[in-house]
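User: Predict Very short patch repair endonuclease's structure from this.
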Amino acid sequence: MADIVDTETRSRMMSGIRGKNTRPEVTLRKGLHARGFRYRLHPKTMIGRPDLVLPKYRVAVFVHGCFWHRHQGCRFTSTPATRTEFWMAKFATNIRRDQTVVKKLSESGWRIATVWECAIKKKTRAGRSIDLLSDWIISGGAYFQIGEEDLDLRTACEEL
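Assistant:
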């Protein structure tokens, strides 16, 4: 299947996709700040440059887009019909990099939280997700992950 736009237009469209200060990230930041948490943004000195770092709690938070980071079973995780091999290789690289970053940060004593875009995409889910993340930050667990499916099922707190 051919792309519906020309290469130049597609390139311009893709270059507009931001890696920092995305809507889900800003929503999460505002929610945590309102709950009294203070954090650093995208520290250049940390491996993987987490979206948020809460030094007081030794927590690194990643806000992952479901499409780019391949959230398993999520309705927002799709594969483009054109250039499938290119996309599959790109997604595989993203997943490997995420795993490496989590492993290295964990080995350095950091606690890791991954908040999937789908968990904070709608305001009705965002508040619950931020509450669960806040509880986990205070609780001292090693690893936290939350997606849309976790909001109905459980507290989303897991140990590595």
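The chain is about 45% helix and 15% strand.
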